């Protein structure tokens, strides 16, 4: 079976408090984009008694046995019998990019294995397993626009508010540590909930929808801040860093004409 785990962007990201369990409470909107990995899963005669994972594209520095995809299969195998699998993961979503690539891969293989072997696990169980793998992992069980709170696992559907717009994703090749980004953040309750602000016209978002990680990440990596400024110079209606970085996106009314500097960092351009 061949499937395509999607990337996401964050439309706004407010860090609202530190939790007793060591995590942070956030509010954000997860929004799927067309950039995706490719995940092929094969089972049947001729396979050895253990899973085999081959990874191509981005992410080759991670040992296969440490990959979140195998961890997801192993966790699912604790509650259901699953034969050994041969898995090929081709990474088009960079790691440490704020696009949720690893979480999407993990959620996608949970869903795929459930369908392949007709396990018929309820979505609530798949999301519970996904949460053990990553805070944003439950979102990718469905990969639909959602307002997220808590650690990012409490999801409320929102409309496809960006239908008809064009998005550009730029990545400078810097992997930002999510743990480090959280350690340097300053939690604050926003004056107005993001869920209320997001329904306003997109051109006005730049005045009041923010990503709290930008303050510290831009200070450490001025190149990322420069990409955001360059997207606005290129006519973006709204630009922001996604998640804890390092990817920056721009929302346009149509496909923009990017200069050479931005084209070097381009990892995706397409309709929303």
Give the averaged pLDDT, no decimals: 93
The number of helical segments is 8
Q: What are the segments in which pLDDT stays under 50 over at least 5 consecutive residues?
A: none
Major sheet attributes: 4 strands, mixed
Would you kindly provide a written description of the structure presented here, covering whatever features stand out?
This protein is an alpha+beta fold. The protein is 26% helix and 27% strand. The strands form three sheets. The chain has a four-stranded mixed β-sheet with strand order 1-4-6-5, with helices on one face. Strand 7 (146-149) and strand 8 (154-157) form a beta hairpin. The chain starts with a strand and ends with a strand.
Provide a quick synopsis of the model.
The protein is an alpha+beta fold and 272 residues long.
Distinctive features:
272 residues, alpha+beta, 4-stranded mixed sheet, 4-stranded antiparallel sheet, 8 helices, 12 strands
Fold topology:
Blueprint: E1 2-3, E2 6-18, E3 24-36, E4 38-42, E5 52-57, H1 68-77, E6 86-91, H2 101-116, H3 123-133, E7 146-149, E8 154-157, E9 166-170, H4 178-183, H5 194-197, H6 214-220, H7 222-233, E10 238-241, E11 248-252, H8 260-265, E12 266-271
Parallel strand pairs: 5-6
Antiparallel strand pairs: 1-4, 2-3, 3-7, 4-6, 7-8, 9-11, 9-12, 10-11
Helix pairs in contact: 1-2, 2-3, 6-7
